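Q: For a teaching session next week I want to show students how multiple molecules come together into a single three-dimensional assembly. I've collected the sequence lines for a complex. Could you give me the predicted structure tokens for the whole thing so I can convert them for display?
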Amino acid sequence: MGQICLSGIVKSYGKEVVVKNLDLTVNPGEFLTILGPSGCGKTTTLRMIAGLEEPDEGDIKLGDRTVFSRNEGVILPPEMRGLGLIFQSYALWPHMNVAKNITLALKEQKLSKDEIEARLQNALELVQLTGYAQRYPSELSGGQQQRVAVARLIALRPSYLLMDEPLSNLDATLRTEMRASLKRLHRDLDATTVYVTHDQIEALTLSDRIIIMNEGRIMQEGTPYDIYHHPANLFVAEFIGDPGINLFEGHVVKGVLECADVKIPVPAALKDYEGKLVAACRPEKIQMSYKAKKGWQEVKTEILQPTGADTILEVKAGDTSITLLQSGFITLDEGTPLWINFDLDALSFFDPDTQNNLRVGKE
Amino acid sequence: MALVSKNSTKPAFWSRQNISYQAYRLKHKPEIIIGVLCLAFLGFVVLVPLIQIIRDALTFQSYDLAYYPEGEVGAFTLFHLDRVFNQPISAALFYKPLMNSLKMGFTVTLIAIVVGSSLAWLMVRTNVHFKGIVGAMLVFPYMMPSWVMALAWLSLFKNDRIGGSEGVLTYLTGVQAPDWVAYGFFPIVITLALHYYAYTYLLISGALATVDSELEEAAATCGMGKWKRIWSITMPLLLPALGSAIVLTFIRILGTFGTPALLGLPVRFVTFSTQIYASINARNEGDAYVLALVLIVLAISFIWINSRIIGVRKSFVTMTGKGFRKRESDLGAWRWPATILVILFLCITVVLPLTLLLWESLTLIPGDYSLGNLTTYFWAGQGNVQLAYGEPGIIHNKGILGALTNSIKLGFAAALFNGALGLLVGYAVVRGRGAWLSKWLEGIAFAPYIFPSIALGAIYIGMFSTNIGPIPALYGTFTILILITVIKNLPFTSRTGIAAMLQIHKSLEETARVQGIGWFRRMFRIIVPLSMSGLVAGMLLTFITAMRELSLIILLISPGNMVLTGLIFGYQEQDMAQHSSAVTLMLVLIIITISVIVRVMSRKAGVGRLSVT
Ligand SMILES: Nc1ncnc2c1ncn2[C@@H]1O[C@H](COP(=O)(O)OP(=O)(O)OP(=O)(O)O)[C@@H](O)[C@H]1O
Ligand SMILES: [Mg+2]
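A: Of course. Below is the structure for the complete assembly, covering every listed component.
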């Protein structure tokens, strides 16, 4: 166990720069998720840590060991870095049975026979595949294959763990189950873990810390709570959250942000703000009432999407669409009037030019 | 965030630090190391000899002094070119063989394409009977030397022209076959076409089987007529295969030696290949080199024309054994006649020649085909001074058994080396995709394709007759036979290797890498087992080619490294028809037996499990 430290990493393919001056530290034993849209450079970053790609510039350290440094001229091949890596495709060797898949790397390490056998049994037990040792990968279900890939790492006991969208090939119910098993893997190995995904639910549920990446740059790093509640910029605000965050762009007039027909309160610090301003509010943070209340705005119901425990409501204030999220299974007719209110504590404000959070009010 | 200023901290390219960094970096890129080694090796065995014969063709050689006493060995001269292109002797040396070769090449290719594609269409797209067995028999010629038909032809039509015994025709009817039937252009074209149709058949049936008949059906539902459909959907899809079939057949025919030698030389019908052979035998290597170069230029121009017509990317279709059945059209009343026609064709191309050879090998006195004259002497006889210069029958004949051992050794060695080389080339090409090394390697591995067999042989004589640095002279050794066979087959096996490597997702190897598994273990535990099924097919093909090849090695064999095909040719030259027939038959039987065994074994080894996604 040790920290993973990337500094000043640049990587390009041909003319296209896909990772741009990345600095990243993963603390010992931490579960860090890199989250970002498709093509933003997550996999590339992970592969550079593993040694499967070579950065153009920068340093990578695993613990106190420098495994790559362009300036010092250090480059350690993947086989000497002592990592564990789970691919999206699991990469089980199709011509070997489960036992051989798990023990091949152990044999390379010249461990004793008893030790290998013990580790094999232990790993199979932990992933609940005891008795499957003689099966071939093609004779296993997707979930079981994934568990074999996990068992392979458990047996190898790496101190650094890298995972590239290990759940994306599974169906929804299996995913929830497997999330738990990956979390357990992290705990059992006590390994410093980097997990790559474009699924925010995975990121929010699994991580100690999340890094949001876009176009090869880090947009924000922080705890899941921070990322969700205090997005550093508009990209993060829009990227995180399902249903997506409500954005209102307008000018401050008489101490209130006017965005077409919607009026949003602003904190004292912004009362005299000049120029355009964007206010953001999570759908579940907008208060709603079936009856008129003083100071609340009237809106009309457009579309309802009950998901069981919650209901997503699309409402309209004049021409502006607003998304609300309410608990309970709600049924309403189209056009039914509703009243909504914005709580100052639940609002974030952004400068549309710099895209950054103005960080006023609650902080 | 600005990018780090690029050059301020980076060490200079030539600094010691950077050089040791680059060296260390390369050390852990196996695909680059292997790529460089393969490239160096192939450059040495493919490009160096080519440059060398160009040089030799343009300088005085010691053997030229007989004609040109004042010449200085090694000095630049156009003497060879002048002799070949521009002297009274040029007609016999160059122009006539050229015309004969081209005539032969075009006619055979045309017939082979027509026959091969008709058969392919019948077998893939119609409901003729007995597809399984007939399909297997149709590729039999592929497993026989190309001149088996020529030997059979001689057994049938040999006349009194070259002395010795006469053929079955004369024996049965008393009529002498006229010269034009027995020897020369006509029989050469027929016998070659009846052999080379197998190549075009394989290529085109492979392509036909993969042309999606759903595409055609889609066109049919759009209301396209049948001929329009064939013309605008099927033909364009088949064109690449057709183009490569034409080029491939043509180049092979340019380079083929056995048949023109057996059927052409008795009436002085000389082709390029036989002229190269004659020039080398007459110690006029200079002439032979010029002729070989012309052959190569011809081959390259055909490949070039083909790729211009079809488009470079699509123009090289190689044979694959894959054939899945597609929608078949019903022949209706023609079903049986078509079946019978195909079977008849098989009788003529496979059954008849083999039967004739068997019969020939069993006759005691040549030319007497009566039952009373049958003997097993040439198979099992002890050796009798009265018969065939006292040569014993096969099983007691040290020369034959030695050549048999050599042939089998050659087949296995070539297959093994070729498989290994194909795999390494495939590995370096696929893993290094995108880099220039990968492209160069792929290109150079394909280069032997442009050398007609006999020309490659001529090149190798030139290169390996003296020692090159630490490499001893290889002429007359067994090594040179293995080397040339491996090189000649490399275009095919490297393609198999590349295809096999493309099937193995790179994450399978990367996982192993990250888990700390070293290169050799990755290779032997993961890459080799996963590419085995493709490799075995490629190696089997090399084995077959190596066993039956004559044109490629005829210039390189000597008593010291005699193989069966060379021996057969020798027997034929000495008019010992029974021996040559018996040995040929044995050769064919061995090739067929071994390929059947390999196929069955590789099927048993079970690759079904590998079908994981
Ligand atoms: N070998 C390569 N050659 C050229 N470009 C590449 C290569 N690998 C990745 N790229 C490019 O680099 C960019 C980042 O790719 P990367 O695989 O890191 O994305 P990602 O964030 O993992 O996306 P996804 O969520 O879709 O997996 C993409 O634009 C991709 O096209
Ligand atoms: Mg990815």
